[in-house]
């Protein structure tokens, strides 16, 4: 079984250890944090990224906050945790997994008996969430692998692999599971400007695991599909609404539109923790990132000074462009409002 040997984030000796993804693919460097404020900076600055990975990183950040606190009553420790929760949550507003991870830890903290019980149970829960993330991705991979055929060439956008999760991956987890099942597959990865998660991370990760991958510029998606180089598309997600609207890395919407034009199935892979069953499309805040990501590459200027820049981190793909949404409990198909509801009911 291809279980990527890359472990994105883990808990070791009461500290959080993560791969610094800003250094990839040139160097594989691990960083260690003992302060939740540093974990918040790591999430904001994309040292760790990908919805499931930042959900678990947020949980680990709160566990650090619990250990850092000098509070001697449960009430004052909960106040310290609430402050830390706010700091961690404000780092990336669009990905729902972060809020989910933080809330899960807060619930455990609230139900603890006393200070030492709270500290212990919060650390235990955060570690459990990391292990569950791997198991969930492997189950998702199994469901998803049935949708892909021998000799498929699968296009993916951004990085929804081991580096976006604790270890196995959502969209790339499906690709790994498809290869594990004995099918021959190839992958086309988009570079995913402006932060290049496709070329720096996806291409690195697939090559690292011996999966056949070709890299294309974002502008070659239409060319690749028109020239029949692509059989199917799979992407991850940072938030999915109950209506089937999918928020994912900027550029996903145009990949889906071009796939529809060429009758190419377009799949999304995400755990149930990525679903937001409450919000409507107009409620979702799209994170806007700094201009320097667009005006230069690796510190080298590629645009005139003082140019206005629009740099959204995510876009929304409407449900009518999506063939299916792969989760750890099965695949939702259109109409999504009904099928997503059924997936959640199966968990009750």
Automatic annotation (TrEMBL):
Entry GO MF terms: S-methyl-5-thioribose-1-phosphate isomerase activity
Site residues, Transition state stabilizer: 158
This enzyme's EC code(s): 5.3.1.23
Active site: 238 (proton donor)
Reaction(s) catalysed by this chain's protein: 5-(methylsulfanyl)-alpha-D-ribose 1-phosphate = 5-(methylsulfanyl)-D-ribulose 1-phosphate
The keyword Manganese belongs to this UniProt entry's keyword annotation: no
Residues the record lists as binding substrate: 49-51, 92, 197, 248-249
Keywords: Amino-acid biosynthesis, Isomerase, Methionine biosynthesis
GO biological process, one term: L-methionine salvage from methylthioadenosine
Top-rank EC class of the record's enzyme: isomerase
Pfam families: IF-2B
UniProt keyword annotation of NADP present: no
Function field: Catalyzes the interconversion of methylthioribose-1-phosphate (MTR-1-P) into methylthioribulose-1-phosphate (MTRu-1-P).
Record family assignment: Belongs to the EIF-2B alpha/beta/delta subunits family. MtnA subfamily.
Protein name stated in the entry: Putative methylthioribose-1-phosphate isomerase
Native source organism of the sequence: Nitrosotalea devaniterrae
Upper lineage: Archaea, Nitrososphaerota, Nitrososphaeria, Nitrosotaleales, Nitrosotaleaceae
Recorded name of the encoding gene: mtnA
């Amino acid at each position: 079984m291809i279980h990527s040997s890359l472990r994105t984030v883990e808990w070791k000796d009461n500290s959080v250890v993560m791969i610094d993804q800003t250094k990839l693919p040139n160097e594989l460097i691990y960083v260690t944090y003992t302060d939740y404020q540093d974990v918040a900076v790591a999430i904001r600055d994309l040292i760790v990224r990908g919805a499931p990975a930042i959900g678990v990183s947020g949980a680990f950040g709160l566990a650090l906050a619990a250990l850092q606190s000098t509070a001697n009553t449960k009430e004052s420790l909960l106040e310290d945790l609430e402050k830390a929760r706010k700091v961690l949550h404000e780092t990336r507003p669009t990905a729902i997994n972060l809020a989910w991870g933080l809330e899960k830890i807060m619930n455990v903290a609230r139900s603890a008996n006393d200070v030492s019980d709270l500290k212990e149970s919060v650390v235990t829960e955060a570690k459990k969430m990391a292990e569950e993330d791997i198991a969930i991705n492997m189950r998702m991979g199994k469901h998803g692998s049935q949708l892909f055929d021998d000799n498929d060439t699968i296009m993916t956008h951004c990085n929804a692999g081991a580096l976006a999760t604790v270890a196995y991956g959502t969209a790339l987890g499906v690709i790994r599971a498809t290869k594990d099942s004995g099918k021959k597959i190839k992958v086309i990865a988009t570079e995913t400007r402006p932060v290049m998660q496709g070329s720096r991370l996806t291409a690195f990760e697939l090559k690292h695991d011996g999966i056949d991958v070709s890299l294309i510029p974002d502008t070659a998606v239409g060319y690749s599909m028109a020239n029949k180089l692509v059989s199917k598309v799979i992407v991850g997600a940072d938030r999915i609404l109950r209506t089937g609207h999918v928020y994912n890395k900027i550029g996903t919407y145009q990949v889906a539109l071009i796939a529809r034009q060429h009758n190419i199935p377009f799949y999304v892979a995400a755990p149930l923790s990525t679903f937001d069953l409450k919000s409507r499309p107009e409620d979702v805040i799209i994170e806007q990132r700094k201009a320097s990501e667009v005006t230069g590459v690796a510190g080298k200027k590629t645009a005139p000074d003082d140019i206005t820049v629009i740099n959204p981190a995510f876009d929304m793909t409407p449900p009518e462009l999506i063939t299916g949404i792969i989760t750890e409990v099965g695949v939702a198909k259109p109409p999504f409002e009904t099928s997503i509801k059924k997936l959640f009911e199966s968990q009750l």
